[in-house]
Amino acid sequence: MFELSQMAAGRASVSDEGELLSGGPQSLLHVHDAVAQRDFEPVLPPIPDDALEDEEDSVKIVSLVKTKEPLGATVKRDTSTGAIVVARIMRGGAADKSGLIHEGDELKEVNGVPLEHRKPKEILPLLARSKDEVRFKIIPAYSREEMSTTKQKLFVRALFDYDPNQDPSIPCKDAALTFKRGDVLQIVSMEDDTWWQACHLEDSNGGAGLIPSKELHERRVALQRPKALFQPQRVKPPGDLYTLLKSPCVSLPAGLRRSFRLGRKSSWAKEAARFRRWSAGVHSSICPPTYIEVIPYHREPKDRHRVVILVGPSGVGVNELKRRLLISDPDRYGVTVPHTTREKKRQESEGVDYHFVSVHMFEELILSHRLIEYGSYRGHYYGTSLDSVHRVMAEGKVCLLDVHPSKIKRVYTSEFKPYVVFVKPPRIEELRLTRRRAKFNLCCLMDTGDAIFLSQEADFEDMIDLAENMERQYGHLFDKVIVNGDIASAFRELRSDLEKIQEARVQWVPTEWSFSSPTKARRSCSHLPSWI
Ligand SMILES: Nc1ncnc2c1ncn2[C@@H]1O[C@H](COP(=O)(O)OP(=O)(O)OP(=O)(O)O)[C@@H](O)[C@H]1O
């Protein structure tokens, strides 16, 4: 490791300052004497003979003892002045720990060798040549006070995967941080607009690494997006569909039987998928998911469980996963009972299958904003109320909610603390294989007794397209993505993830939940305060 041995240029060393601050009145007198005798000063290396007169105030000589650990700094040439400056100090690295070299500092000399007219790559051999000690002559960029005010604790959850080995523009691969979507990172520096520095939460002792800044990632995604526009066979104007989508009853009721949703799928859902493809391609103004600011949440045993929201394109397997969770642990998981205005069937029970209400009562629920989502089917209303979620939570169960992602915002509050799982279809080959094996493509029986035949290939493509659009539009709200290829593996992964969440000592939740309740989740990056 490089260790600090001395610093110079007429300043007290860090440890001297510490002593000055820690004493009482006696110490103060002692310090006064010491200052009067000027014996507080560290032993300085001789001021270089060639130091310019006007540099004396600002030049600093820093000596570091050399060990095997790298210095943890990068240098670059300032294009306007030609000077060699410290481009980056890796947090937790040897240079950072020394506290004596900072970003923006100008390097004048290394071991007495002037750096004027040298290229950054010529500096490494100079460092390598030095044996026990490396001595830098530096013109500091900032005072130490300025530096300390810029440091804050900021935690974010990454909303995309990052592998520096796949990134040709990373300034230094070895200095980069690999992360996966969902990882919580501590941001330690945002001074650079393009490359931030962060460390993994579980690795807070380790050094920081470079990660793409929010702006950089957004720019990159925006550059990739035009590809979507060049798929002529898939881009289709919406026609009459816009009118349909503007209708107040387009959202999917939660807790409804699968057959209802499948029936819906064969009618407007396919067109909706095409519309969304078109609108996403043409009006791609939505910010891509980057990082969301999070804070720790320490769940107390008396606290209610977080609501688990399962979302995904129709037919992907949301209901199947929900069903398996309920069967696997009925004491732990519960589902809401929906409201409907249709007649009760003979075998059905009030409050078990549905809450059977009048149209007037249903409209009251709509007007009082007590419904998370609602829709109409064959002339009857169906909907899921906030109260029904409360009821499941009050039983001490984890409420499994299955809503369209546009409705997540209705429960995106500290009251429900939703944990959102996005169920995603696998690649088309696996989707074909697994669903054909399960004979899903052959025929689906509706609760009316009608059999509908699905045009399998188009459905698979629509499902994948819908999933992509959902992820693009609502990805910032997803805590977990489960790819539902093999149903048994997807279920195992989901169950173990939910158990981990419930048992975790600390959970990371959006910062905005700490400000108000209920809170509105906003999609636009520019408006969401915790979206950085
Ligand atoms: N991984 C899988 N492999 C094979 N079949 C699956 C898989 N996941 C789900 N299925 C089957 O696909 C069909 C549709 O699943 P499911 O009803 O859960 O979809 P959904 O996402 O709830 O869609 P909808 O809301 O339209 O009902 C069901 O018959 C289910 O058993």
UniProtKB/TrEMBL annotation:
The protein's name in its UniProt record: Membrane protein, palmitoylated 7b (MAGUK p55 subfamily member 7)
Q: What family does this chain come from, according to its entry?
A: Belongs to the MAGUK family.
Which PANTHER family is this protein grouped with?
A: MEMBRANE-ASSOCIATED GUANYLATE KINASE MAGUK
This protein's species is Astatotilapia calliptera (Eastern happy)
Name the domain of life this protein comes from.
Eukaryota
**Which lineage do the record's taxonomy fields give for this organism?**
Eukaryota, Metazoa, Chordata, Craniata, Vertebrata
Q: Where is the Guanylate kinase-like domain?
A: 305-499
Q: Which CDD domains match?
A: GMPK, PDZ_MPP3-MPP4-MPP7-like, SH3_MPP
Question: One Pfam family for this entry, by name?
Answer: SH3_2
Enumerate the spans annotated as PDZ domain.
Answer: 61-142
Keyword list, A-Z: SH3 domain
Domain (SH3): residue spans on this chain: 151-221
Electron transport in keyword set:
no
